[in-house]
């Protein structure tokens, strides 16, 4: 059973919003594109793992995808957490291509692809660090001890794993994705003592769902984006001309004549991702290049956003992250990039 589904991460939504907001002359920055490609590759690798788990379901297991928890002032993130009454399993997922050499003496992962050779942090050690964090997190909340296993999963189907020392201790710790189902079966067979009863699992489920704290990010600050870099008004989703104008209760592109009655919704949601989690009527008018406060009021109200305050002080609040569109379009020149993708 999947108790928490994976949605597109906040940082990817922010990158895509930024691409829609940036002028064409500045959005093709290599630094911007490479970082976006890295996060996107990671997300795709995680989704591939989600699919594998969905077609090899394990009875009486609860799956949490993309979980970020706090230990005091610090946070730790688990790509996939599998909870059963007998044990807990942590999956650390990497989307890496090429030949991957793992040296158990130095605990380094070396990636070779073409003429490129790159060192990566040990995904085995990363998973073990998450295990230690999770043990503390469970202890702090009074849960009884339970075995916790970790698996580092390479999700790219074209990758080749090389165990430099033929170290048997890592054969089931660093694996290709297709080996995940049989290894999970072995773990479920290995542990046969119930550590959690039904009440404890229900309590843990509530704790995990309520404690999840998605990573926030500020790309405007990170990439030093200035007002001169940004589009004013609503860009046309067909030809990218801006601003679209409001005519007869819809948005009209003066260049290609495309009409879109809900073009403002995408821009307002992008504003929430990039600038602020609230918006006022005045800010909405500036954002959409509108003169009428009544029109701005109707558009905001029609989006069914929660609001606080009254009259000119009323603020409309961003929806929960999982309600943001998962398949919003991005500019064609970004969408068609042939990324040299590799996960961090």
Describe the overall structure.
With about 350 residues, the protein is α/β, with parallel strands linked by helices. It has 2 domains: about 1-210, no CATH class; about 230-335, Arc Repressor Mutant, subunit A (Orthogonal Bundle), CATH 1.10.10. The chain contains 10 helices and 16 strands. The strands form 4 sheets. Strands 1-2-3-4-8-10 form a 6-stranded mixed β-sheet, with helices on both faces. Strand 6 (about 110-115) and strand 7 form a beta hairpin.
Total beta strands: 16
Total of helices: 10
What percentage of amino acids are in beta strands?
A: 15-25%
Total domain count: 2
State the end-to-end distance. Answer: 29 Å
Summarize model confidence as the mean pLDDT: 93
Main pleated sheet: 6 strands, mixed
Q: Percent of residues in helical segments?
A: 25-40%
Strand order of the largest sheet: 1-2-3-4-8-10
Q: What does the overall shape look like?
A: globular
Helix and strand succession?
Answer: EHHEEEEEEHEEEHHHEEEHEHHEEH
> What is the rounded Rg?
23 Å
Low-pLDDT regions: 340-344
**Structural class of the helices, strands and pairings?**
alpha/beta
